[in-house]
Structure formats: structure tokens, C-alpha cells
Amino acid sequence: MVRRRGQRPLQRRLERAVRDPHGRGKRLISDDRLRDELALCRQYGIPHSQFLGVGDGTWTPRDREKALAYENYLRAVCPQCGTRESEWVDEQGDYQDAYVAISHKCFGCEEIAAKQAEIPEGRPGAGMKVLLLPASVHAAQQLLEELTTAAR
Known about the structure:
This protein is mainly alpha-helical. It contains eight helices and no strands. It has helices spanning 7-19, 26-30, 32-44, 48-51, 61-76, 85-88, 107-118, 135-151. The longest helix has 17 residues, at 135-151. It is flat and about 70 Å long. Residues 1-7 have low confidence and may be disordered.
């Protein structure tokens, strides 16, 4: 990759913005809506200005800066729990209780786990997946199958 002139200082600025909640980039950390917008822009590969309806689809320097800041933000977020280290330590670097872990039962996950337990081990179960279908869709599929079978 060829590094363009001035790219490294920009990269450092963006990294600093993600690390320092009191400096540049603090809006990205504190503004849930902006993060949601940038997540959609990332998913669709469009610049933020176009998402806002003010751009023509060309990536402006500001769009690129936002996209790079968002990518740096994502690198600072734990992929499993979704928190950042800076949320768990205070300004002196001491640990603080930022979150409380609670348990929550998801009935959909319970249904999936029960069905997965029915899948045989080894080759007979290879490639088997468990999906959740709305009950109304499943009932309609069964009715259609019955009508099709009866018509034969």
C-alpha cells in the first residue's frame, strides 16, 4: 500500500480520538445515533453525507475521516461484550465498575437449543441447522403441504 502524504498524522489523530473521550471523536463515543448511522453507511458502503441526503455519493474528506474514526472505534470495542477498555478504567487508570452482568433468558435461544439437542451426532447430523420460523408461517407451510398432498 502506498501511503499518501499526511496520511499518518490523520491516522494518529483518529486513533487518539477513539482513545480520548474528552478530545476529538468524543461525539462518536457518546452519540449512539451517529454510531448507528455510520454502521449503516459501513454496511451499504456509502458516505455519511449521502446517508444524510446532502451528498451526491462522492466521499468527501469529512466522510472519509468519519469512516476511519468509526473503524478505529470498532477496533477498540470488544467483539464479545461490546465494551471498550476506557469504560472500565478511570482517568488515573484504576478499575471502575462500569457495567453489571445480569442474566436474561431468551425463549428463542431456548427453542433453538432444544431442537439442536435432537440433531444426531456425526454424519447424520452434519450440515443440519436450526432456524426459527414464526408459528403462523410454519402453520401455513403445513397447510399448503396437506392441500398439495390431498390434491394428488
